[in-house]
Every structure is written in C-alpha cells, then in structure tokens.
C-alpha cells in the first residue's frame, strides 16, 4: 500500500453556486454533474458552469470531479467523448465513471475515478480497477472496516468512502427495479426510487408481517464517529452524498466534516489537508438540522438491527415534545426545545403518515400553526424538521476561507519591496520606488505599517507573520502601502493559478490485468461495444448485455442488497438458529413484498448475507426509446 497522508473531504454540488459554497465551507474537492451522462439526470450543469466552479476551487487547490457515470449506449459514445474533452478544456480535475467503454476511447489525459456504481465489494475487484488506470475508487457503502483494510493493503490507488447522506439500499449499480417497472434506469440517471415506496410484507405462509411500511428504505449514513477508524483502515477521501440536495444541506454537512477532519489532522501530524486555506463559520454545524432520515453507520462496524427508515422516507426532524392540549387554533406541548416563529413541525397521524405544518407564532409552550391539523391528538410526539432561525443563518453568507500569507517588507536602494509567501510556498516580490522621508512619529511608524500591510480585506488571504526590515522608521503614505500590497496579492493570485497542476492520468498496467471472472452476467452493466472490448481485452470470455438492453426478460434479481428483512423481523436463521416458532424451526424461506398490484419475491442468500428482490420487466416497458446522439459545441484543442 502506497498512500499519502492527505485527507480529502469530497462534497456534492447540484449546481455551481452550491459547489462554490462547498469549497468556501471546507471541501477539498467537489463532485458535480455535467450537461449529460451523469447518474442524476435532474442535476445537470453546462460546461461554462463547471468552468466557473473550477476557477473558484483552484484558487484553494481544491479539485472538481465531474460525474459521467451512466452506462452509455453505442450511439452516445462519440457525444460522451466530445463532452469529456470539453470538460478537460474547462479545467476539470477528474471524471467519475461507471462505463468501462470510456477507457477504450480517445480521452484527454484526465484522471479517472471509479464510480460507486462499479460495485467494489471485493479485494479482487478493487485490485483490478487499481491496475487498469483508476486513480481513485469508491468503495461500496456496505463494507466493514476489516474489508476496507484488506482492500487498502492490496491496492495503491486512493480509496474513497461515503461518510454522510442518503443510502441506496441496493448494492450500487445492482438495482433494476426502476427500469423493470417504469423504463427509467438507475444506471442511466433516472431512478424512480422504488426503495422509498410503502410495502406490505408476507412470509411464506401468507402471514402479513408488516403493512404499509417503507421496508426498502434505510436511514441516512453518518460516519462521524468512525472517521479515525476509517483513516486507519486506509480511506483517504471522505464523500458526502447529495447531488440533489439544497444549499443549506451542503453547507451544514461540509462544515461538520471539515471541523471533524481538522481536529484529527491537528492530533496527527502525519496527516494533512488535500487543499489550502482555513475556514471560519458563522454557525455551529449540526447535520441533524438539515435533511436526514435519522442516522446509521450502516455496516462499517458490522450488521445492526436498526438501519431501516420504515416509517417514512421523509425528513421527520428532531423530537420536540408531546402534545398536552389542543385548542381551536393552538397546540400546547411539553418541550425543552426553544421553538421559533416560522419553524416547521411534523407528526405521524393515526394512519402513520408524516404530516407537516408551519408555526406562525410561539408563546411559551403554546404554538399557533398556520392551520390546525385534523388528525393531531394529545400524547402524539411532535418533531421539528425546519429550525427557522438556524436556516436563516445558512441562507446568509456563512463561511470564509482564507490562506495564510507571510509578509516581508524591506527597504531597497530606491524605495521598498514587499515579499509574500503563502502556505503552499508560492512567493512573489513587488518593488516600489519611493522617496524616503523620516517618520515623524518613530514609535508609531512600524506598528502602523504592519497594520496596513495586514489589511487583506476580501481577498483569499489572511496575514501571518509580518516582518519589517528597514534602516530607520520611514514615513510611507497609506496609499503607497495599499498599492504595494494590492499589486503583491494580484501577483500571488496569478502565480497560484499559473502553477496549479491537475492530477495526472494514471497509466494501466502492462500486460493488461485479468478480470477476476471470465463470465459476466447482466449485473456487469455492459451496454456498448467499447465496454465489451474492454472486458474482452482483460480476459472475459462470455459477456451478457446490460439489463437495460432488455435481453433479460425472465425473473431475475432486480435488486441485491445487504439489508435483510428476515433479520429486521428477527427471523434470521443465523441469529435465531434452533429457535422454535409457530411453524417450527425458522429457515430462510422466501418472503413477498407487495405494493398495489406489484408482488416482489424476496430470496435470501444466507451464506453471503444478501437479500435478492426478484422480478421481471413489465411488458409495457419492454422497449425503451432509443437514445439519440447528444450534440455539444465544438471543443478547443488542448494547449
């Protein structure tokens, strides 16, 4: 294992403005979708948007990764290639990809990262991707610390891991329910989120174990308590989920993990930040205040019983207190939480549905909502899913990011010179001819000069050490000091931009690495001839088409997940071995998920601790519309 001590905080961005704020709040890198081919079809941005974000990020040596992580149809390959060149010309640092066909194409020397959709759960798969040219790989969310450590020991590329945000219940890239039922493919960026729907659950005998529950919906990821363990296991990039999330979520989550990682870096001198500058915030990061389905650390420390968000896939919020009295237009409750006018409140009604309301006025323990809910009862628990005062803080400018710069002011033969050296070692010197006049106030001259030099205002810098070396105190007009400082800062910014180096593209091993298997099913998501060529070059003999090609028409696994409903309902044979129930010893018999007319069979691979959701393509979605080539403006030649 050859891995640096740089720790990368990787934040999401739905658009360039959110990405800029992610950088301002401490992100070392930001990932964002381009104008097409990203696995979030509603989170697209123009190349000029991305170029604007790149320019801001690079000022702090932060990087921009563009998600180009859908599987590509044959007639999209040329458009995808053209887009990659445009993104490279715009300054993008890396591409996040799923489709291996891209590795067989004429791409610029841009770094490649393996998307979470490549489903990296084994040492063998990680080693293979490490050898074919990926500089960074996103490990499966389902891995535990031991598995992560084994992968780290066997690879040299950077290891990335999701530490916060929504969890896909399926192994990423291995969910086809959306395509089978609606024609909208998750691997093509159009997931219909069947996992967040309500279901009934029946056992093999037809008994209803659960009704109208969101049984495939899991809580949101939060690895705050596991960062040190993940670092020790080999993780170097800490990824926040959320390319659909709003500005407040990204600010809050990024600031939270920036604070935690900085604490660890301070404790451990062998570790460092992957970008430049330090952040100050106008708020205290509290990730529970912005969208979440409550928290789980998933499987990092082994299987846990309470990972499901079965009651609702929505944001219920923090507990406030129980209702004690209901009036015509008010609600009284017992609470120790300070509520505010404009807060959002929610509760579960008698049908177990989450209902929301807005507080108009708060008077002590009494709240006056914008309208009285019909189904609210005494004893019900209220939650706050919008803290109005907190959100107001996040709506305003809420962070500053500055880089330390040391200053050396010296006397020259015909005037003075100012040298700036930033925290990355970039140095500039500006000379200013000036007639020398002795200072009238000898004691005040040097402190005044230091104070004026340190006034870096709205620049990206903050003054560190200020050294003044002169033969005697001189009178220097404030206008001259300001001009000297301004010119020096402009030159330093220009030098930083000129010396910024994008990370290099990694070369694949020669001879080509051999893929761990010689046969690929539809689960490999091979959707074009270039991807087929890639796998053939790496030793695969039999390659099935992707599920989206509509060649798998029988009952197959539409979802493979480590989330197990037998385990959730205390029916796991491993956990309950020898327990005698109504029907005898518990075994891993199939179960059935029911949503309306849809019936999905659950089969259990107990050896692997996996649950398979079985089904087939609906007849009305057998023929997907043929994708059309996407046109982009002509690219500039690489300089």
Report what the structure shows.
- With about 650 residues, this protein is an alpha/beta fold.
- It folds into 4 domains: about 5-165 and about 220-280 and about 285-290, TIM Barrel (Alpha-Beta Barrel); about 170-215 and about 550-625, no CATH class; about 315-395, Beta Barrel (Thrombin, subunit H); about 405-500, no CATH class.
- Helix content is about 20%, strand content about 30%.
- It has an 8-stranded parallel β-barrel with strand order 1-2-3-4-5-6-7-12, surrounded by 5 helices. A 7-stranded antiparallel β-sheet has the order 8-30-35-34-33-9-10. Strands 16-17-20-19-18-21 form a 6-stranded antiparallel barrel.
- A hairpin with a 2-residue loop joins strand 19 and strand 20 (about 365-370).
- Helix 1 packs parallel to helix 2.
- The longest helix is centred in the last third of the chain and has 22 residues, at about 480-500.
- Mean pLDDT is about 95; it is low at about 580-585 and about 635-639.
From the N-terminal CA to the C-terminal CA, the straight-line distance is 35 Å
Strand order across the largest sheet: 1-2-3-4-5-6-7-12
Morphology call: globular
What is the correct CATH architecture of the largest domain? Alpha-Beta Barrel
- Level-1 CATH class name of the largest domain: Alpha Beta
Question: Quick one: biggest sheet?
Answer: 8 strands, parallel, barrel
Residues in β-strands, percent: 25-35%
CATH fold assignment of the largest domain? TIM Barrel
Q: What structural class should be given to the helix and strand makeup?
A: alpha/beta
